[in-house]
Amino acid sequence: MLLFNVGEIAYLTHGVGERRIEAVIINKINRKTAIVETFVGGREFEVSVGALIRDRDLIQEVFDYVNNNIKDMKKRELSEAIKKNNIDKVKKLINAGVDVNAKYDDAITALHYASIYNRPEIAKKLINAGADINARDKEGKTAFDIAKEEDYQEIIDLLENYNKKTKNYGKTTIQCN
User: Fold this and answer.
1) How far is it, in rounded angstroms, from Cα 120 to Cα 162?
2) Which domains does the chain have, with CATH numbers?
3) pLDDT per position as a tens digit, 104-121
4) How far is the C-alpha of 89 from the C-alpha of 79, rounded, in Å?
5) DSSP code of residue 151
6) Per-residue CA distances from 77 to 52, 115, 135 (Å)
7) Could you tell me the end-to-end alpha-carbon distance of the chain, in angstroms, rounded to an integer?
8) Strand-pair partners of 111
């Protein structure tokens, strides 16, 4: 009998325990094998019972690792969607709970990317999802500063209008240099 039950969380080891991936058992084949689905990428694998372990502390460690990787993957997907002007993908990621204020290299946020690539419609979606219009990158620049440098008028107008609307609610105002 397989020691794990369908729906139970375990983790897979790859190689000599070098990499562990959290998985959920979705089907038993026989007493020595099962079908599992990983939480990273949703891939299904047929595995032997020997590749599955139940150590709860280790499972929590793996779970934390997987969650962090998923957050990083979503963050990277968001920046790529902004670069490619893929508004549908940006909407899906926002709806899936991607952190719109996550910092990339040089402390750039998704809103900075929207300014860098002149994506006013995406900038609006990010702002509506709670993007911090006053976030500063490593050089101290906001998304507004970048739009101003590049003379991206639609983004400048969007950020100025947003700032005017929120000024009465105690938000920090955009520095118009």
Assistant:
1) 13
2) 9-54 (2.30.30), 70-169 (1.25.40.20)
3) 988 999 999 999 999 999
4) 10
5) T
6) 30, 17, 20
7) 71
8) none
Q: How many other β-carbons are positioned within 10 Å of the β-carbon of residue 121?
A: 13
Let me know: does 155 contact 118? Beta carbons within 8 Å.
yes
Residue carrying structure tokens 């976030």: 135
pLDDT tens, residue by residue, 54-110: 555 555 565 566 667 777 888 999 999 999 999 999 999 999 889 999 999 889 999
The pLDDT value given to residue 29:
62
Report the predicted TM-score, pTM, of the whole model to 2 decimal places: 0.61
Res 156 pLDDT > 70: yes
Token pair belonging to 79: 């920046």
The DSSP annotation for the chain comes to --SS-TT-EEEEEETTTTEEEEEEEEEE-SSSEEEEEESSTT-EEEEEGGGEE--HHHHHHHHHHHHHHHHHHHHHHHHHHHHTT-HHHHHHHHHTT--TT---GGG--HHHHHHHTT-HHHHHHHHHTT--TT---TTS--HHHHHHHHT-HHHHHHHHHHHHHHGGGTPPPP---
User: And the tokens for 125?
Assistant: 């979606």
